[in-house]
Amino acid sequence: MNMLETRELTKVFKKSVTAVDHIDMTVREGEIFGLLGPNGAGKTTTIRMLSTLTRPTSGTATIAGHDIIRESKQVRQLIGYSAQAAGLMEAATGRENLKLFGRYYHMDGRTLSKRSDEILELVDLADAADRLVKTYSGGMRKRLEIATALIHQPRLLFLDEPTLGLDIQIRVNVWDYVRRLAGEGISILLTTHYLEEADRLSDRVSIIDRGRIVTTGTPAELKGAIEGDAVSLRLPWADAGEQANTLEKTATALSGQPFVRKILPTHDGVNVYVDRADEAAPQILRLLEKEGVAITSTTISRPSLDDVFIRYTGRTIDEEATGDNGNAGKEG
Amino acid sequence: MDFARDVWYTLVRRLRIDLRQPVWLFFSLTQPLIWLLLFTQLFKSIALMPGFPTGDYLQFFAPGLIVMLVVFSSAYTGFDIMVDINYGVVDKMLVTPANRYAIIIGNILNAIVSMSIQVLIIFGISSLMGVSIETGGTGLLLTLVIVWLLGLAFSGLSYALVIATRSHTALVVVSNMLTLPLMFLSSAMMPQQLVPGWVTTAMKFNPVNYAVEAVRPLFVTGYDWNAYLIALGILGAFAVVGVSAAVLAFRGFGK
Predict the structure, then answer these.
(1) Engineered SS bond to B7: which of A61, A66, A111, B106, CB 3.0-4.6 Å?
(2) Which CATH number applies to A229-302?
(3) A73 and A101 Cβ atoms separated by less than 8 Å
(4) Is the pLDDT score of B180 beyond 50?
(5) Over the stretch B55-86, which tens digit does the pLDDT of each residue have?
(6) Stated pTM of the model
(7) Which chain A residue's Cα is nearest to B7?
(8) CATH code of the domain occupying A2-223
(9) ipTM tops 0.90
(10) Chain A / chain B CB contacts < 8 angstroms
């Protein structure tokens, strides 16, 4: 049985903003599933619907066979929800936070004490368990927050942007914990706008853009779909006219060349997809020079999820993923 | 059963946090203490006027002050849940199988408990300053019943406002705008016989006034069951309105 299944799941907010647009998605038992997309793509709304916080406008979703609306009580027992926001009581200790949420899952005192110790151990907070949360560092808070979502041993964990706004070292640290959890057999649905995060953690990834899922597959499959290496060229242009002109000249110079598989414009140049970038790059540079196209810089890369994202949406993810790292944790 | 249990856990965790920061309890008492000292000095000579029900203003004002304390303290209780909403704690509670009404009721009950503690402290201080309660321990208990109903009503409305608007500012503006007029349009500070006719009329529509009128005889003259039962009915209905408003606002949360 699939852990999670959605059919045509849709959320339309007031003023007819379609945040999530007929999403079909499946999370299998025991897998880490990544939902990758820029801010505003509908990731958080999807998670909020699946965790029974927001009512879908239409469509259905089931968790371990239970309908999220009709059987919300069973669903709540099965899921854990780790939000972007801190979600912790600052004036309580780590252990008290865990225990309160455990009480809400109607765990009895003894089981709860035992499970609290276990889970504090798992996220390496055993030593800090009886300190007030307000004395915790950012990484400790995030680990405790994830722990509170796990206290009742859910079968499916939602992780909404688990590393948003965290420093890179802490981010790597959180990744380790997520993998450790997956090792315990729990299924995880994770949203992120960090391509690297989706790539490293997920067994399968869906790319979501403007409320729609544009493609789904394993990171390897998705990268395979790109076919080949990318030669990224940064091209200098001052305005839209020059940009169009430059892009046209680039296309003229390169299209029809047998080794070129695809040419895709980016926000500051073009990506040329080829079989072997090391051989193709010198030729590309020569051809462009002949056509009179100036080049600011050249980068050669193996296919990444970045390329997959561009391939399916026509944009790089960073164009939209700016401006919210600063206030991470303040929005719901 | 689950409902009662969820209310209990919500209440206990809030109390535990509050008790850990007793400084807030004292902080919330400074305002009533200032009134107690200031008003009794300011209005000292009013008690000498003919028609004033007691010979001593402090004895007259103490029951009014208790009601005032409840109104002011409960009007701002919405702040508590605002913090939880902003920190995402409420969301995390709502994804658990806990009864969602129990969560809001537990929060309101916590406000009632801490308010009762404040009332008892202010009562103790007034006693030390010479205020007596005519009807003794029973009267104090009857006073607390009125305090609870009034507290349920105002903290319910305060929660409803904050949950519906998600705004600190709205709560501050509305509470500031309403609390003082509600006090001045009651007999908390000035006996009904000494205020203009239109104010007496306005008092009839002010639930706060019924609370003052029910509590003061318990302190000053002895049982006035007529006033007490009327207050019980009106404040009971008002409490139902306040708590329902909070519950309804909370039900719409996140939709």
Answers:
(1) B106
(2) 3.30.70.100
(3) no
(4) yes
(5) 788 888 999 999 999 999 899 888 888 888 88
(6) 0.80
(7) A104
(8) 3.40.50.300
(9) no
(10) 77
